[in-house]
From TrEMBL:
Residues 245-423 form the Major facilitator superfamily (MFS) profile domain. Keywords: Membrane, Transmembrane, Transmembrane helix, Transport. One of its GO terms (molecular function) is transmembrane transporter activity. InterPro entries: MFS, MFS_dom, MFS_trans_sf, Sugar_transport-like. It holds the Pfam family MFS_1. This is Major facilitator superfamily MFS_1. The chain crosses the membrane at residues 29-52, 58-81, 93-116, 122-150, 162-184, 190-211, 245-269, 281-299, 311-328, 334-352, 373-393, 399-420. It is found in: Cell membrane. GO terms for cellular component: plasma membrane.
Amino acid sequence: MTSEDQERELKKLEVFAYKNLKKNSIISIADGAVFAIGSGMLPVSTVIVYFISNYVHSNTLIGLLTTLNVLLSNSPQILVAKKLEMLETYKEYFIKVALLMRLMWFLLAIDVFVFAAKNELLFIILFYIIFSLQGFFTSFANITWFNLILKLVPERQRSKFFGIRSSIGGLCETFGAFLMGRILRLLHFPYNYGLLFLISFLIMMLSLYIASMMKEIPIKKPKKKIDNKHYFRSMFLILKEDRNFTYYLLSVLFIGALGKMPFGFQTIFAKNSLSISTQHVAVATTILLFSQTVGYMLWGVIGSKYGFKSTLLISALIFLPAIYFTYIMSSVEIYYLSVALFGIAQSARNVNESNMAAKLCKEPLKQPSYIGLRNFLMGPFFAFNSIIAGSIIDILGKNLLFLISFSCMVLGFFILCFLVKEE
């Protein structure tokens, strides 16, 4: 395929995208809204961590749960990036992997109902395995979905689209957190959590049905076979040839991974220092999701006017007081405040981190490689920051943890501010 042929295909795709923009946007926003209700019931940093802490009492092992899930939801994306570069359509593949991702919540519900009270050790082992698999299938679903959206939503419309979708999704997540608090009252522990997983699974299945209604046309791509060794070598050449992208990855490392180490333990710190209850966790989850919704609205406006980089810089500055309030944790109100600041700051990264990576890629057909490489390299750091943080707390105490976190956040801010160029 010649460069003229590729240009012609991209132009045809752009015409199709604009023609079907309204319909596909409404469907995707509806899908996101329904999915957000289900996911709003199950935030890892509050509900999942609080639930498993009733069975596992080591901070390191609690951190391992998050580590496995985050690692597997990011790093394996590089395995599917090559496939996505060759696929002419994404929707069918997305539906397959998204279905597997959702089935893991159903299996967790079965695990709770069958084993939680009868065989605690088997229950914990299965919980860790299934939750890890949920992360693995999430990695395939996320990169496929994002590339589908890049294909169906023109670049000039993406900031608006993601802002609206994330804002509505945030409100629905808050509603999901509200439902979570009600559902947990219906049955005794631990079966109330089994019911929570089951209901979330059913809601997420509805969202998948809605997503299947999106319209997509195939885009012709070069018919060439590339062996895995050559492909992965070419991916890593990006780091050598694209210095701007490499600096961006360093900023992600220090801000998005190492700088955020204490936040996975916000609820544990509050539980140990303030003896919070399940209802306190429900309130904190609601605050987290509501603050993220406010953030999505804020970052949508700032991103449209000033670019993705500005939102990531401001969010890094907001992370700093969030770290401080997580450290002092002197009252329930301080706990809520630290969660709110974290939610506002994190929402910028949720919306614009992948958009920033895609924008730094100069060739549209290479976007899966850029996104897959970013998540492959950053995945271990996203994942192991929890287990490293737990080990630091257990061995050296939390003071050193917060000092490292604060320093990394500041360093990442300066790298992003002065070395990364948003072109």
